[in-house]
Design a protein that fits this description.
Elements: H1 4-32, H2 38-64, H3 84-111, H4 115-145, H5 149-167
Helix pairs in contact: 1-2, 1-3, 2-5, 3-4, 4-5
The structure holds MU-OXO-diiron.
Length: 168
């Protein structure tokens, strides 16, 4: 059985994962109307879907442990970006924020002596390490590319492979 505090904390994390999905969905929709970045677009759509899965995993966990997962209202995310580089910088910033939030959930689980939840959250800790690494790799590559159009062509060509490599 989840404590009230643990349930509130996990429901807050459900909201953050849902927001993440919306944030990346907005990036995907923006990318889709930019010329020549079909794979960047696919990456954002895929990332948005993954965040939805993170949210669902939490919803099921809360409900299975005798709590009640609440589906949150969401603010509208940023809809447009000055450049692809700006979008990826926002993605990294957002992932760092999510990692901090997962750390807070871990802290609460330890304070509440909820070792089942602590164990469950380890999956998110590992996932955040991967996602931050992926976001940093993308940002580093974009920094190197600068305004070089052929570099951007290759970035778009490689992005799905880079993300698969880091996931493995
Ligand atoms: Fe589920 Fe990327 O945070």
């Amino acid at each position: 059985m989840l404590s009230k505090k643990m349930q509130e904390t996990l429901n807050e994390q459900i909201k953050i994962e849902a927001e993440s999905s919306q944030v990346y969905l907005a990036m995907a929709s923006w990318a889709e109307i930019q010329p020549g970045i079909d794979n960047v677009t696919a990456f954002f759509y895929q990332h948005s879907e993954e965040e939805r899965q993170h949210m669902l995993k939490l919803i099921h966990f809360v409900n299975e442990r005798g709590g009640f997962a609440t589906v949150p209202a969401l603010p509208q995310p940023q809809l447009t970006f000055p450049s692809i580089k700006h979008a990826f910088a926002a993605l990294l910033k957002h992932e760092i924020f999510v990692s901090q939030s997962i750390n807070k959930c871990i802290e609460v689980s330890l304070n509440e002596k909820d070792y089942a939840t602590h164990n469950f959250l380890q999956w998110y800790v590992a996932e955040q390490i991967e996602e931050e690494a992926l976001a940093r790799t993308m940002n580093d590559k974009l920094e190197l590319i600068g305004d070089d159009k052929s570099g951007m062509y290759l970035f778009d060509k490689d992005i799905l492979t880079i993300s698969i490599d880091i996931d493995q």
